[in-house]
Backbone:
């Protein structure tokens, strides 16, 4: 059985994000080197888009035109009418710049107090593992946000069995 | 020359209106400094509870220890084994920079050291003697499972789970 034949049945589930982490990685590894399977995956994506387009709801009936006719007509403004403008006091513009600066700083502080200070020592936790030294031993890391991180030190048999398997013997 | 400069040049005191934003800005900057420095000051006193569990998975048929049910749920899809049991549980209560640890049944020493606690969790250095050294930023209550060494007929598994107390 070729690698494509082994991977093929999982492409659909891979496309839908339904595979376990190890199987997903196996499929990803194969896709990296197999154009045929990549094309098949792209075709699956195309089918998905076509299905989504076809089931999209028909345009909603024109509710607005219905409502518009029930609204009272807008009163026309007299030609000479002008918007009232409040007079600007002298010195106000000069006062506005520092006050605006102080306002921005105050808003930033309020944000800091409400949200909490930024974590200056580390970026957002996308990946848990930051550095890894296994003294030359092969290792498999299953790392993802919101899930348990698994660091699995392997021996040589483990590496070989993990190449194409969906799960590894401990 | 601005109005305030002109006022100073003329020997007149600055108006109260113009002084207020400057005082506000200074106060705001001081407050910002305090807010930013606060966590760094508090950092020295922060503690983290680390739950360490040592388990053993075996390819030979046997029971799945009820105590390791959660671990089993995490591993069952990716790893093949037929029995799983908890060997030891320990809780370490550590300050940042403090080192704690335990000895694995294989004789290897595990050492853990929280380096920093922030919004992303605890930055943790883990060292397993001659086997593994890793730095990890572990979110609160998110477990890290480490498949360590062959032991007996199976494998030793170390689970670490930090619990950062609320301020």
Residues:
């Amino acid at each position: 059985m070729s690698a494509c034949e082994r991977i093929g049945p999982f492409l659909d589930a891979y496309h839908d994000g339904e595979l376990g982490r190890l199987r997903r990685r196996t499929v990803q590894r194969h896709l990296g080197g197999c154009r045929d399977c990549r094309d098949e995956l792209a075709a699956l994506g195309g089918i998905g888009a076509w299905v989504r387009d076809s089931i999209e709801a028909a345009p909603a009936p024109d509710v607005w035109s219905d409502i518009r006719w029930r609204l009272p007509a807008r009163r026309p403004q007299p030609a000479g009418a002008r918007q009232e403008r409040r007079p600007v006091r002298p010195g106000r513009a000069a006062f506005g710049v520092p006050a605006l600066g102080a306002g921005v700083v105050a808003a930033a502080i309020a944000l800091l107090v409400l949200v909490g200070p930024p974590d200056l020592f580390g970026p957002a936790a996308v990946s848990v593992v930051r550095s890894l030294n296994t003294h030359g031993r092969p290792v498999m890391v299953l790392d993802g946000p919101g899930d348990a991180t698994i660091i699995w030190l392997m021996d040589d048999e483990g590496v070989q069995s993990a190449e194409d398997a969906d799960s590894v013997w401990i | 020359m601005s109005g305030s400069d002109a006022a100073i040049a003329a020997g007149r005191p600055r108006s109260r209106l113009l002084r207020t934003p400057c005082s506000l800005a200074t106060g705001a900057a001081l407050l910002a400094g305090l807010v930013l420095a606060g966590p760094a000051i508090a950092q020295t006193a922060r503690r983290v509870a680390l739950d360490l569990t040592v388990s053993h998975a075996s390819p030979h048929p046997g029971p799945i220890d009820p105590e390791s049910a959660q671990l089993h749920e995490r591993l069952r899809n990716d790893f093949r084994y037929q029995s799983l049991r908890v060997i030891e549980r320990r809780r370490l209560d550590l300050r940042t920079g403090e080192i704690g640890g335990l000895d694995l049944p294989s004789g290897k020493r595990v050492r853990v050291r929280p380096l920093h606690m922030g919004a992303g969790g605890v930055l943790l250095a883990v060292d397993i003697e001659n086997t593994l050294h890793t730095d990890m930023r572990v979110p609160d209550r998110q477990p890290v499972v480490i498949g360590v060494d062959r032991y007996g007929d199976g494998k030793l598994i170390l689970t670490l789970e930090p619990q950062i107390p609320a301020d």
The CA atoms of residues 110 and 128 of chain B lie 5 Å apart. Chain B touches chain A through 55 residues (CB under 8 Å).
